[in-house]
Amino acid sequence: MACVPHDKLIEFCTDVLASAGVARDQARVTADCMVRADMRGVASHGVIRLPVYYNRLVKGLIDRAPKGRWVVDKQGTALYDAANGLGHYAGRVAMDRAVQKAADHGIAAVGVFNSTHFGMASYYMLSAVNQGFICLASTNSAPRMAPWGGRKPVLGTNPLAIGAPSNLPFPLILDMATSVVALGKLVVAASEGRPVPLGWGLDKDGNETTDPKEILSGSLSPMSGPKGSGLSLMLDVLCGVLTGAAFGIGLGSMMNYNTLEKSGHFFLVIDPESFRGLDAFKADLDQLVEMVRSSGTETDRVYLPGEIEAEREADALVRGVHLEESLIAELNELARNAGCDQL
Known about the structure:
The chain is an alpha+beta fold and 343 residues long.
């Protein structure tokens, strides 16, 4: 394990993506999203994904110079055609527009279609919640999960992220997959050759297994059974059906180098000032937080959504981003092939 300064890692990822023909501003947003994920302990969506994005770019499966455009732009809603560009940049553009519209109208919903994997869902709300907005973000993804009662993967691990501003040193941010575990964690486990807990997924024959490679070729399990299955389905309604993106088995996998992804994203932003006011909202949230905190004991700390991630990010700002030596070697090989400086 080694520690790499976060700013150095962002610059490295930006250089590699730019070498594939991506505009530097779009490459930097993607790099920032990946590194922020690693800093917050979400390695499944961190720089481990860089080789996949790079390879899809050079193979033409992600457009290097997308001509994204707004196809709908009304008072409280908007719809963005990502033109098959990097999903991170499309997500950033969409969230920025949602914040602007919520500031003007109190609430805004913005959708994205014709997009690609956008990384860590909570990334898109970190800035907005610190500006005083309540946010929701989601995306749909290739079918990796069988619906409750089914055996064939039809649903994605479609994540749900909800964030709220607070008087705490960090905003409250829930970011979770609708499967028992995020797909990326299985990818990490498979790359490291280690087993995963029983209950994370099924092999292609529908049997429970601890082999992540078997699950990747089979099906992940929905969290809480029918609840996770139903939530994934409804998020696909928002991200896919509502926006005009692909949905269900129509979505392509970023791990499949023969198909486009055609994913969709959905962002909802609420301005508390348009309800009771931000100060009143935060004051009552303080009371709710205290109720949650006080449910623990002197020796058992009750963590709030986003608290552990915020602590990890603060540590990474000082000590650097923790990366496996094997991953650093893989990234350096990628950099050599791309003609970029190594870490």
